[in-house]
Write a structure and sequence with these properties.
This protein has about 220 residues and is an alpha/beta fold. It has one domain: HAD superfamily/HAD-like (Rossmann fold). It has helices at about 10, 15-25, 35-50, 55-65, 70-85, 95-100, 115-125, 155-165, 185, 200-210, and strands spanning about 1-5, 105-115, 130-140, 140-145, 175-180, 190-195, 215. Strands 4-3-2-1-5-6-7 form a seven-stranded mixed beta sheet. A hairpin with a 2-residue loop joins strand 3 (about 130-140) and strand 4 (about 140-145). Helix 5 crosses helix 7 (about 115-125). The longest helix is centred in the first third of the chain and has 17 residues, at about 35-50. The chain is globular. The mean pLDDT is about 95. This is HAD-IB family hydrolase. It comes from Salinispirillum sp. LH 10-3-1. InterPro entries: HAD-like_SerB, HAD-like_sf, HAD_hydro_SerB1, HAD_sf.
Length: about 220
């Protein structure tokens, strides 16, 4: 058995769903325009630079959700996926996913973006397995904290190992597709790392180590 693992934002998607969710909340008037957009952009630049404090970021992301009733936030998310995420799917992503399906590979998305945002995106892409940053909940409400280990940087390795340990399948080979230098720890661990529309730091590493570099856009 072989496992094909995919990063989500700027890999299968031609954009960042986490940042786009913040922009969507601004557009809908759920959060104040200037303050939220400024903070959202600031956190995104930290992510690009590899300096993001994901716990601080998750507290920021979940604050608007804490102020919404469950049905309201679920309705907003459905609208977001249809209006924003669906057009964001990278042109070559469906064919790549199908290529692995036809080879009998299992598919897994692993993403630092939280599960609330990404679960319906995995469904949209017809990828049955998802490891995302899980949001802590208490009495049906978000606390603003992360539950367990965030699926971010080296945390993707520990989350993947824990997931594999729970499976009744022994995978002989692993592929991993990503755009970001934040994913170098996991890219260096798998047999088949692939840089997808990579950032400059990942591109330099991929060229140095002879990894495939592709574009899905």
């Amino acid at each position: 058995m072989k496992l094909a693992i995919f990063d989500l934002d700027n890999t299968l998607l031609a954009g960042d769903s986490d940042h786009a969710w913040g922009e969507f909340l601004v557009a809908k008037g759920i959060v104040s325009n200037a303050d939220h957009r400024r903070a959202n952009d600031h956190f995104y630049q930290q992510y690009v630079a590899g300096t993001l404090d994901i716990h601080e970021y998750v507290a920021f992301v979940t604050k608007p959700l804490q102020q919404l009733a469950e049905q309201e936030r679920n309705d907003l998310r459905a609208e977001f996926v249809q209006e924003v995420v669906q057009p964001m799917i990278a042109a070559g992503a469906p064919a790549l996913l199908q290529q692995h399906r036809l080879q009998g590979h299992d598919l897994l998305i692993i993403t630092a973006t939280n599960r609330f945002v990404t679960a319906p995106i995995a469904d949209l892409l017809d990828v049955p397995n998802l490891l995302a940053t899980d949001l802590e909940m208490r009495d049906g409400e978000f606390t603003g904290r992360i539950a367990g280990t965030p699926a971010f940087q080296a945390g993707k390795i520990s989350r993947l190992h824990a997931w594999l340990a729970e499976r009744d399948k022994a995978y002989t080979e692993h592929y991993f597709y990503s755009d970001s230098h934040n994913d170098l720890p996991l890219l260096k661990e798998v047999a088949h790392p692939v840089a997808v529309d990579p950032d400059d730091a990942l591109l330099a590493t991929a060229e140095e180590l002879g990894w495939p570099v592709i574009s899905l856009r």
